[in-house]
Amino acid sequence: MTQAKRPGGRTARVRAKILTATVELLARDGVSAFKYEEVADRAGVHKTSVYRNWPDRNDLVIEALSRHADQQIPLADTGDLRTDVADFLLALAAELETPFGRALVNAVQSREYEEVTSTIRGVFDRRLATLRSRLERATLRGELPPVDPLFFTHMISGPVHLYRNRADLTFSRLEAERITDVVLAGIRATASQGGDLASS
User: Fold this and answer.
1) What is the pTM for the complete model shown?
2) Interval 177-199 mean pLDDT
3) Which superfamily is assigned to 9-66 in CATH?
4) Between 57-66 and 99-109, two packed helices, what is the crossing angle to 10 degrees?
5) Could you give the CA distance from residue 2 to residue 160 in angstroms, rounded to a whole number?
């Protein structure tokens, strides 16, 4: 059985241009308003290069998002949970300023394309697994009471998205540390009062 060759050389460069252009358009317009016909112009390639490789619009969107799907926002384990979470929030804020970050947010807000939704869910599932692992180690060390990772993610990341939506606000380390301190203090206080945040 002959194994199919991966596209290389000029073909690979053309595909990369098309996928990059797709992400940029998704970042600008979102999935619903994404215009398949604009991709070639933005990529600087002939329309047939788009239509031949991706006859289906959704396939192009999915591949463009999947191309970056393995990107992980770094979550270190220095033994200092406060520093690690603050660094994570700064990295998240930085990603939201990139075309892929904006495209990801726009894709999440669109619920009409199940295949696209599944792709985005896979990205977040991988990130959630990384966070879960870090929180489990923090719990074992006594840094933090048991907490549901999804709940924790919503608590720390929600404010970052709010900052991103305000052009007059800058997200700095000060904001990252304030959010981290408030969330960690709230979790610890709730646990000390007998509250259970280990499951949602």
Assistant:
1) 0.82
2) 93
3) Homeodomain-like (1.10.10.60)
4) 130
5) 49
